[in-house]
Amino acid sequence: MDALIPQAPRRDTVSIPDTQDQRIAYANTLHTERTELEGQIQQAERRQWMIGVVLGYTLAQIKQDCAHGEWLRLFKGGRGKSNSTHGLNFEFSDKTARTYMDLYKGVSKKCRKLGSEKENEMTRMLQEPGEQLYLALGELSDATSIRAARADLCDDEKPRYDAERRTANLLAHRNTDGRPSKEEVVDTQAALDLQRRLNEEELQRIARDLHLFVHNGRHAIIGEEANRTAAGVLRAALDALSTITY
């Protein structure tokens, strides 16, 4: 698993070469390292939802074997008594488990539409996951995140995205004098509730992506100007968030 997580280049302290040819060679070496790291990052971004599918399949097998009421006891802080029989608990929430299982169900449903042979082949590969499985999953979706994969694979995500579009249209179409339209007045509270939830989820996604960006060492290979611009934006965003009162 560690091989999927790209690391920032590590090198002993070196001096910039003196001659032009040496500097060109040094620049070429750095460019090669950056390109290779970029490829690893792209692979890791795709692999994250694919690993989620394997997780979903594994969790579905575990849940299938659980007695009534036992499933939720397998989660730390879950409902019911803890899993005292084996002493092991999942180190994530039942909500996260549902996300993984939704991905697996979405893949299964898409394979089923392609025929029983495809479905059986996918089940076989999930039992012994390897590079062949990841290639097959890549043929089903080109998503680069779990959220994008759920939207692509899971039918129950479609109403949510339709609601997002309706809200965007609702907030965009106002009277020419700036007053809300009649339709907007009727649905204002529902639209605001939906928009608030979407904003919260988007902010959580941004925070998670930023954490991964730094954790994976990507911040170490950006230019000074990009660094300065991003730092200014982040400081302004932090100031804006800190001034909100509830």
How would you explain this protein's 3D organization?
The relative contact order is 0.09. α1 crosses α2. The N terminus is likely disordered. The chain is mainly alpha-helical and 246 residues long. The two termini are 41 Å apart.
Write the layout of secondary structure elements.
Elements (H helix, E strand, L loop, with lengths): L19 H46 L28 H20 L2 H12 L3 H10 L5 H8 L4 H15 L9 H34 L8 H19 L4
Helix pairs in contact: 1-2, 2-3, 2-5, 6-7
Describe, in short, the structure shown.
This protein has 246 residues and is mostly helical. The chain contains eight helices and no strands.
Q: How much helical structure, as a percent, in the residues?
A: 55-70%
Could you say which structural class the secondary elements and strand pairing correspond to? mainly alpha
Number of helices: 8
Regions with little confidence, pLDDT below 50 for 5+ residues = 1-6
Mean pLDDT: 76
* Strand element count: 0
Radius of gyration: 24 Å
Question: How far is it from the N-terminal to the C-terminal residue, by CA?
Answer: 41 Å
Element string (H = helix, E = strand): HHHHHHHH
